Every structure is written in structure tokens, then in C-alpha cells.
Amino acid sequence: MRALRDRKRAGVLDIVLTVSLIFAAPASQGLACGYDNPQSVSRGFLNWIYPDSLYVIGAISREVAARRLPLSNFDRGGPADLFGHNFLLAKTSLEQFGTMLDVASPEPLQTSVALVLVEPMLWARFQPAPEGVRTAVHVSGAERGDLVVITGEAVIAEIAAQRLTLSEAYARGVVRVYGSDARIVEFLRTYGPIGANASAHDAKAKLSVAPARISADVACRHRLTQIEGCFPSVRKTDQ
Length: 239
Hints:
The chain has helices spanning 2-24, 43-49, 55-65, 85-103, 153-160, 166-171, 181-191, 200-207, 210-224; strands at residues 113-117, 122-129, 132-139, 147-151, 176-178. The chain is an alpha+beta fold.
């Protein structure tokens, strides 16, 4: 019996040590994303730190089924991507998103934004700099004080291609934003139009669905959870 207890205790210590080593890894190396090794990814940590963040996966699946979103390159399968073509496509879309953040407002970006693509768990950061928004792709994750955006590869690609606005994506549930209530509202108010095509009329029509969703999300978080880095003991299940 004692030997069994010792083995169980050793197993728990191994798990704790493994998690500690993962989060102690130098930021320059970063955590492996799905383009490196899909089997190494654990989305559970994402949902633990940002409650209900993985709801975007279901929302994206519904949009793909309704043919309002294409299937992400990461999920298309096929031959092994030996030359990193899919990663380069995602990187290009993320860099274009950063450019859109830079030109969307006459005022500079007020706070750094961290964004993760849930299929490959690829993180990027958009940081204010004297020369404009500085985009870094394949970083280790969000940093303290970042506004966090959780979405999918195809969503960012559609926004970069000006076929979908950020506000419309948020309203459809394929984008989730984590931070203080005031910062979320201000971010979506300022940058919600990015991704709009040349027709101002179409852009205005797309954005008209956003305010109710923003208000509902903020009110919901007030009732259910604390903002930024919380670890709730009880979480709702997706309906």
C-alpha cells in the first residue's frame, strides 16, 4: 500500500514539474505551436486561463458549415507541409492584421494586444512603438497587461482579405476578447471596422450587429468571472 502511495505521489510531482518547466521556458523559445508539433499542444490551459475561450472553435465550425467561413489551412489535411507554407500564410495574415491596427485610427494603439489562433495555437503580439504597431509572430504567449484576442486562422485571413470585419467576427462569436470591460469596449469601438471592404455602406451594415453583443458579453463577464488571468473553480458548459 505504501509503495502504491509513493508511486501516485511521484506521478503527481512529475506532472507539476513538467508544467513548471513549460511555463519557465525562455520567452524567446516560446511554446511549441501546432505548426511545430500538433500533438504537443494543450488547449486546456488556454480555456483555464481565459474561461470559455474555446467556444470560438464551435462558433468557427458553425460558420464553416454555413459556408460563411472557409476551412482553415491548418485543418485541411493533405500532404505534410514540409516547407512551412501554411505557417507563412498565417504569418502573412497576422502581419496584415497588425498593419490594419496601425492605420485604423489616427491615435496610436493604446495597449499591446496578444492574439492566438486556436487551431495551431499560434500566438502573435501587436505592440505600440514610435514607428507604429510592431507585430511579432510565434511568440510564447500574452504578457501581463495585454488585451487578449482569441480566434481562428480562417477568421484572421478573412479580415486580412477585407471580406470580414472584426466587429462582425466578434458578433458571430468567432472572436473573443479578454481584458477589462472598458478596454474591450474601446478596442472594439476603435478597431471593429478593420476588415471592411471599400464600400462604406456595407461596412456600416456589418458593424450594426456589434453593440448588443459587446454589451451582453461585458455584462455576462461581470456576473460570471473576474477579468484577466482568473482561474474559476466552476465554469459553464457550452450550450
